[in-house]
Design brief:
By secondary structure, the chain is an alpha+beta fold. 28% of the residues lie in helices and 28% in strands. The chain has an eight-stranded mixed beta sheet, with no helix packed on it. It has a five-stranded mixed beta sheet with strand order 16-17-18-20-19, with helices on one face. Strands 9-10-15-12 form a four-stranded antiparallel beta sheet, with no helix packed on it. A hairpin with a 2-residue loop joins β19 and β20. The structure holds zinc ion (ZN).
Length: 468
Amino acid sequence: MIGTAVGTAQEVDQALSSPKQVDPYFPASGDPRYRVHRYELTLDYRPGPNRLGGTARLSALAGPEALREFALDLADFRIGRVLVDGKAGHYTHRAGKLRIRPARPVAADAAFTVEVHYSGNPKPVRSQWGGLGWEELTDGALVASQPVGAPSWYPCNDRPADKASYQLSITTPSPYTVVTGGRLLTRTTRASSTTWVYEQSAPTSSYLVGVAIGAYEKVLLVDADPGAVPQTGYVPTGMVPHFATDFGRQPQMMRLFEELFGPYPFDGYAVVIADEELDVPVEAQAMAAFGTNHLDGARGSERLVAHELAHQWFGNSVTVADWRHIWLNEGLAKYSEWLWAERSGGRSAQAHAADAHRLLAGLPQDLKLADPGRKLMFDDRLYERGGLTVHALRTALGDDAFHRMLRDWATGRRGGVVTTADFTTHAQRYTARPLAELFDAWLYRPELPPLPGARAGWLRFGQESRPA
Ligand SMILES: [Zn+2]
C-alpha cells in the first residue's frame, strides 16, 4: 500500500533530519548532520589552462547534535586553508570528501561558517551517465551537475534537499561571457579580466547551480507583455537565426506554464547554447543548457524547450527530497511537453499518452516508478511512464481538479523539497474517489497498467487543443 511503501511525508521528513539518513542512491554524497543556507563562491577561471581557484564561504546550521567533525563534498583540488568560524580547522581530503574537524566543536543547532580556499584543474566527476559537473569545452566551460557533479567545482553539502541561496563571483578573461542563473549584480573589467557577480536568492540545490563560460552573443526573447519574465539566450555567433526560430515560441510557453503552474519561480530565465553537441539538454536553476544539435531552425526540438522550462517549476523550485523521487521531476516535465503540444495547436496529451503506452508495452516492465533504483533513475521508461502516470491522474480527477491540483502543488511547495508520498497525499485532496489503487498500479508496481483515458468519454479533453 502507498502508506507503507515510502512512509508518510512526516516520517520521511523526520528520517531526513536524522543523522543517519543519507541518500539511498548516493550514500557517499552529502552530510545530513548540518545544512547550508548560503554559499558565496569567489572564483577565478582561466579557460586555456582550465584552471579554477578561489574561495567558497558557506553559512551553515548544525543539526540537533554538536559537530565534532563534518564533511563537504569536493573533488580533487589543492586545498589552501580551511576555516571554521574564522579559525583554522583540521581536515583530510580523500575520495571526494573534505572532512573537517573544527578547532572547537560546533554546538547543536548553532550557526557557523566554513571557508575553503582551493585551486586546481576541474574535471567532470565520472558516473554511469558519463562525466558530470564542470566540463572544459573547446573554448570555455559548462557545468551540468545532475545528480552528483557539483563537487567537481565547489565544496558543497551535495544533497538535493539542502537548498541554499548563492552568490557567485567569477573572474575570467574579458572576451568570455559568464552565464549562471540569478540576477547579474555587477560586471567589472580590470585590465584584461572581467568579474561577473550573480545573486540567486531562491533556495537552490547544489546540483542545480549551472555555469556557462564562453563566447556568446546575447539574444533577448521579447514578449509583447511588458510584465513578462525576462528570457535571454546566450548563443554562439552564427547560430542566432536558428535560435530565434527554435526558441521563438518560448515566451508563449512561459505564459502558458504560468497560467497552468502559477508564477514563474525565479527572476529570469537564461538559455545557453553551448558551442558543442550535447546528448540531452540540462536544466539548472533559472537556466538551461542546450547543444548546437538542438537547433535546426525548424523547431525540431521544441518539446525539449518545453521540458527544460517546465523543470523550473518541477525539479528546481519544487525539488526532490532524495533521488528516489526523480519521477516527480521527469514525469511532470514530460507531461508539460504534452500540455504544451496540446495547447499550442499540436497533438493532444491523449495521443502522446497512447504513443508512450505503445512504446512501454514493448519494453521490459521491471521499473518501479516511485523508487527506480540508481541504475534506472534516468531510464527513458521513467520519463514516459512518469508522463503516463500524470495523465492517469488527470483522467481520474478531470481537467478542472487536475489543473487546480497541479497549480497548487507548484505554488504551495515553491522553494521546498518533496517526496512521492507528499504528492499522492496532495492529489487525493482533489477528489472524493480513492486514488490508492491508481497510485499503487502506476507508482509501485512494475507492470504497465492499461492506457488511461482510452474510453470514449475521456477522449474529449484531448481535443480541446487551441493555440496558446
Ligand atoms: Zn528532465
